[in-house]
Design a protein that fits this description.
The protein has about 180 residues and is an alpha+beta fold. The protein has a single domain (about 10-160), classed as Spore Coat Polysaccharide Biosynthesis Protein SpsA, Chain A (Alpha-Beta Complex), CATH 3.90.550.10. It has helices at about 10-15, 40-55, 95, 115-120, 135-140, 165-185, and strands spanning about 30, 60-65, 75, 85, 100-110, 145-150. The strands form two sheets. The chain has a four-stranded mixed sheet with strand order 1-5-2-6. Strands 3-4 form a two-stranded antiparallel sheet. Strand 3 and strand 4 (about 85) form a beta hairpin. It is globular, with a radius of gyration of 17 Å. It starts with 11 loop residues before the first helix and ends with a helix.
């Protein structure tokens, strides 16, 4: 195991780009997961990987349908219902904020292709950051296939960025633990 530190926090694309040197000889599937999704399960991650492999895509995005999608990047689909782009909450229009399918921050990318794409990402957004979500639009623009896997249980992918979100995650975990105890008992 080797650790890589993002000294200056300049966005999620910048964070992943910090691994380029360590992974320079790596060829294959690169799984990217967020540290703030504590309920993410092994079966959900396995499904993401399996569908990525089956699709032959350059990238696969794990999405979820949320009743309250506030704070999450929205999934934009084209006329053929294919993933077209991901727009962050802060950069979204009112119509885009009404979309309930969200980006979970879990991806599977093909390396080394993703590193070439990351180097082309700019900071033209409200936060002035390098967004990993922009990699999806760039891949699509270059006509690389991008796949989507919708999480079967939206609770698996809830992020924790506030006290309210932490409380919700704690409630879900308590329910899950209670169900496991009942099954054993």
């Amino acid at each position: 195991m080797e650790f890589v530190v993002q000294e200056r926090q300049m966005g999620t694309a910048h964070a992943l780009l910090q691994t380029k040197q360590v992974l320079s000889s790596f060829r294959g599937e690169l799984l990217v997961l967020c540290g703030d999704t504590p309920l993410l399960t092994g079966p959900t991650v396995s499904r993401l990987l399996e569908q990525h492999r089956a699709s032959g895509a350059s990238a696969t995005v794990l999405t979820a349908i949320l009743e309250n999608p506030y704070g999450y990047g929205r999934i934009l689909r084209d006329l053929e219902d294919m993933l077209d782009a991901i727009v962050e909450e802060k950069d979204a229009t009112d119509d885009q904020r009404a979309i309930k399918e969200v980006n979970t921050g879990a991806y599977c990318f093909q390396a080394p292709l993703i590193f070439d794409v990351l180097e082309k990402i700019g900071q033209d957004n409200r936060q002035g950051e390098f967004y990993l979500t922009d990699a999806i639009a760039l891949l699509r623009f270059q006509r690389f296939p991008v796949a989507v896997v919708v999480a079967e249980d939206a609770g698996d992918v809830l992020g924790v960025n506030s006290a309210e979100q932490l409380l919700e995650v704690e409630r879900i975990m308590a329910r899950r633990l209670g169900a496991k105890i009942e099954k054993k008992g």
